[in-house]
Amino acid sequence: MPSRPLRVAQAGNDATRLREFAGYAFAAPALLAQALTHRSAGSPHNERLEFLGDALVNQFVAEALYLHWPKADEGALTRARAELVRESALAGLARELKLGEHLVLGPGEMKTGGHRRDSILADALEALVAAIHLDSGFEACRAVVLPWFAPLIEALPPPNKVGKDAKTRLQEWLQARQRALPAYALVEEGGDDHARIFRASCTLAEPAVHTEGEGSSRRAAEQQAAEAALRIIEA
Amino acid sequence: MPSRPLRVAQAGNDATRLREFAGYAFAAPALLAQALTHRSAGSPHNERLEFLGDALVNQFVAEALYLHWPKADEGALTRARAELVRESALAGLARELKLGEHLVLGPGEMKTGGHRRDSILADALEALVAAIHLDSGFEACRAVVLPWFAPLIEALPPPNKVGKDAKTRLQEWLQARQRALPAYALVEEGGDDHARIFRASCTLAEPAVHTEGEGSSRRAAEQQAAEAALRIIEA
């Protein structure tokens, strides 16, 4: 990769001057500047850091879940990790840290609102984690990063429910009570060719429950209907 | 999970007595015994440890590659990591450590040669890594585990070639020299219904090269032919 020191002028862009972020003070602020630089703004950008940070986040979260749920099986741990490290979850953490305000983007990405895009925010968060790790080592990095995930870990559903979709949870609820399985039906299909809307129903025999859900696919509509049924029977 | 202290008697099974493995002496040998116990032999088995070890191995390898290839882009790093942490690579390391000899398996898995199976060996290797981590922390674990991967990292092809299949590498070789792309043709299709054999040819205009390859699918046969062509033009 050629090193192109191109830097895009941006109102309020302070990435090259920042020394501290999210309560962590960098010994090498150049690492922080790199973590906050999207590839659209030239090199050095944050793609290599993102590769390293992805593995670090995965490891921090895996270990935290292992300790948090001493009895959970591998399947529950794997599903919980997927919930915590998925793009939208990482982007949510990035927003809490106001990371978007400090991102350095190329003009095209700036115009199209790249600093608010989930993928760019999640990648930059991972890059930031790698930058802290390279700046001060694994243990110090974990001490900074784990508290970001702690509220998400606390908010997880129990191990036997985490990461399972509504249809699966509804089926398991009924099977555990030896009840008949739900019947799903397509109620309506409409919308434009490019934006179809499906409406599906979910009917239980016992307890007698009938719900409907809507979505951009038949499957999504059924999940909505199952979710509504779960809310009724678990209330 | 209920704790079932079932332990299967096995000739030469010393997992519950081992204190040291692969040059690492455990402060808590119970962790080692658990890492070496497959779920077919009862609880506590190594599935939770495998979950944690998978993340650790991923992180050790990601960091080693990041440092080993300071100029490689994210794509090359990702492909190289996939090569190093894939099941067959981990199983190969497990065999070098003679891990199979110490595995504790249930009677069914023992009869069917489970201690030689890639998936079981790779899982146990990951569990062993987690056991070392829990026994003495991240830095000590990395110091034990990274040397296992060092020869594999040294043996990687260059970043721009790693993890790319033969047809891709051949195409890139030709495009870099502005030569015509290869022509693939199916030469023969035979074998039984359940074990088809395909034979494909690869023809280059310049240099004039004609090779053939065989495989269980047309694609596999073409890859073999491309590999043969690469060996000729790169010789």
From TrEMBL, chains A, B:
Provide the DRBM domain boundaries: 165-235
Q: What is its EC number?
A: 3.1.26.3
Q: Which family, according to the similarity comment?
A: Belongs to the ribonuclease III family.
Q: Which reaction does it catalyse?
A: Endonucleolytic cleavage to 5'-phosphomonoester
Please list which residues make up the signal peptide: none
Instruction: Give the matching HAMAP family.
Output: RNase_III
First-listed, main subcellular location of the protein, grouped into a coarse class: cytoplasm
Residues holding Mg(2+)? 50, 123, 126
Q: What is said about its interaction partners and assembly?
A: Homodimer.
Q: Which UniProt keywords apply?
A: Cytoplasm, Endonuclease, Hydrolase, Magnesium, Metal-binding, mRNA processing, Nuclease, RNA-binding, rRNA processing, rRNA-binding, tRNA processing
Question: What is this protein's function?
Answer: Digests double-stranded RNA. Involved in the processing of primary rRNA transcript to yield the immediate precursors to the large and small rRNAs (23S and 16S). Processes some mRNAs, and tRNAs when they are encoded in the rRNA operon. Processes pre-crRNA and tracrRNA of type II CRISPR loci if present in the organism.
The catalytic residues are 54, 126
Entry-linked InterPro entries: dsRBD_dom, RNase_III, RNase_III_dom, RNase_III_sf
Protein species of origin: Thermomonas aquatica
Q: Which residues form the RNase III domain?
A: 15-137
Top-level class of the enzyme under EC nomenclature: hydrolase
Localization in the cell = Cytoplasm
Q: What is the lineage of its organism?
A: Bacteria, Pseudomonadati, Pseudomonadota, Gammaproteobacteria, Lysobacterales
Mind telling me what this protein is named?
Ribonuclease 3
